[in-house]
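Contributing: when you submit paired examples, paste them exactly as shown. First protein:
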Amino acid sequence: MNKIGDINNYHDLTGLQNLKAQAKNAPDSAESKEALKKAAQHFESIFIGMMLKSMREANKAFEEGNPMHSNTTRFFRDMYDQQLATDMSDNGSMGLADIIVQQLSGDTDSFKAASVLRNDATLANLQNIKASIKPNLDNSTVSVATPEQFDTQGNIEQNKQAQPKPDMSFESPEDFVNKLWDFAKNTAKKIGLNPAVMLAQSALETGWGQHVIKDQQGQSSFNLFNVKAHRDWEGDKAAKSTLEFENGVAVKKVEPFRVYNSIQDSFDDFIEFLNSNGRYQDALKSANDSEQFLQKLQHAGYATDPNYADKIIGILQSDRFKDMINNVTETVSFESEE
């Protein structure tokens, strides 16, 4: 009598053929039931493989420019993921194979799923999943639930200590200026800059607060100046499609941007970003001259748009913006200082 073979390798196509033949030869036998279980495990491994692939794709934006992520390393990483998916299905990590067997066999009375969805099941496998995946995610915001996040019903609980970020919405450009003026005023004085310049720049970057980048949970990143998350950034990131100008031609790219916890964090980090980068020192020296500051900021590479500075200056000089500023402060000079 032929023995059911284990499909313990992700490219074991022969094992699948043996399962198919065994099930056809003896549809009601013990071997057929075992074949059904093995086929269900293989289906589960395919599902897990798709899940891992999606996670890798979500992390792809943060791998660009990293020498550790070449085509060769990605090839072997994908092989590892596929084998990992097979091993996880063999261990019953998700329990999907058990559910498939239950549905197709019709034996609901004697069946009991050995999965994390069962109340008395162990959740230790989830720790192993996280430990296997985490080293390859390179600080991605993608995470895997840990046992502590599950209640006795197998549902993911919200972290009771984690507070949701406050809503940041603006009804109009006037509302945008009114809500952000104090932040701009208190932060701009650190470098001797007119706070109206910061508001005008943020208005251009975010469309008056209507297009602030959101994180993967759909919450605001509070990134009011669209500061990118380069290699020295250790905080959370959010990938966003953006237009970059290369040799005067607009090119659509996906770039990682910094994620903050509050409006104040965004303003503070913008100043810190300028102060900590040597290429912006010339612009900072001209902070008391709004137009010179913006022109030098653009020249230093803050934005690739060749009209970046002129667009912000246009906002500064518009009558509507001047009226907005006059509503929050008595006198603001928009003229470049000689």
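Second protein:
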Amino acid sequence: MAAVRGSVHLPRCVVSPAGRHSASLIFLHGSGDSGKGLRMWIKQVLNQDLAFQHIKIIYPTAPSRPYTPMRGGVSNVWFDRLKISNDCPEHLESIDMMCQVLTGVINDEVNSGIKKNRILVGGFSMGGCMAMHLAYRNHQDVAGVFALSSFLNKASAVYQAIEKCGGVLPELFQCHGTADELVLHSWGEETNSTLKLLGVSTTFHSLPGVYHELSKIELEKLKSWILSKLPRETEKQNE
């Protein structure tokens, strides 16, 4: 596993903060996309970059691997899965390997002077699921987690990890389109309800008529939430 981790370097598309860098956000793309692709998609929807005065945004790209839902075709995916459904076992071997690789991205930020409680992780679709595994199973001290059009399988290892932990957990922000035909709105809702029952502080925004896509309204909501979790630090806080 260590050898695999050492051999994987994720390409990263970065939006640097306009001012002094005091927080970081790691935004994971959906299956078959790339960090650069996700950044461009967001730019298209918002008519501008998702950008902040003090927050660095990192869009990593998943490695290429055979992907079972594509009959073994090679795609940029964070992990493998038997099918796109919440009713099957997770492919934990690939999920765990990628948690190790993405820990390297978090560590790079920490080593550059950013505290763990000033780092947010999240993503779209598969990227949101990956972010929940990364934070709730491995990095429960990050500032928060967001998942857009995402879900966890019914018997997810995330639920098991949370049941075993007695500490304070990162807050979860979720958005999901009611017209999503690829990742059903009910799967996202069920994920949110289960995490809430397990003690996670959650927010869930249903987006009427939205398909499996990013919408301007959810990105605006996300932007407000990001700023509430990672406010600009005053000079006094830094002394």
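If you have annotations for the second protein, write them as plain sentences, like these:
The two ends are 40 Å apart (CA to CA).
Confidence is low (pLDDT under 50) at residues 1-6, 235-239.
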